[in-house]
Design goal:
Elements lengths: L1 H21 L6 H21 L5 H24 L5 H20 L2
Pfam families: Multi_Drug_Res
Protein name: Multidrug efflux SMR transporter
Membrane topology: Multi-pass membrane protein
Length: 105
């Protein structure tokens, strides 16, 4: 169950990072509230996950999921442009997250 909490926490990290951009520096109240809610849910689920997962495993996976989600969201919805080399490193990040999950007992 801890891994499920961790994955969902990473997804909420993507939510708050994205809504942070949409809040335009906390100038738009609705997106500001979504940002705060996303942060609360993300940290709460991370806290639940690290009850049984090692911190040194959970934290990098959490940030990795958030980073991957934010990159993909930025490309699809904000038109962010990534060079082919950047995509290679994004792929390495994904491989690293999967590798960590597969090697932790």
């Amino acid at each position: 169950m801890a891994w499920i909490y961790l994955i969902i926490a990473g997804l909420f990290e993507t939510v708050w990072a994205t809504t942070l951009k949409l809040s335009h520096g906390f100038q738009k109240l609705d997106y500001t509230l979504y940002t705060i809610l996303g942060m609360i849910l993300s940290f709460w689920l991370l806290a639940k996950a690290i009850k049984s997962l090692p911190l040194g495993i959970a934290y990098p996976v959490w940030t990795g999921i958030g980073a991957l989600g934010t990159i993909i969201f930025g490309v699809i919805f904000f038109g962010d442009h990534l060079t082919p080399l950047t995509w290679v490193f994004v792929g390495l990040l994904l491989i690293s997250i999967i590798g960590i999950k597969m090697t932790v007992q």
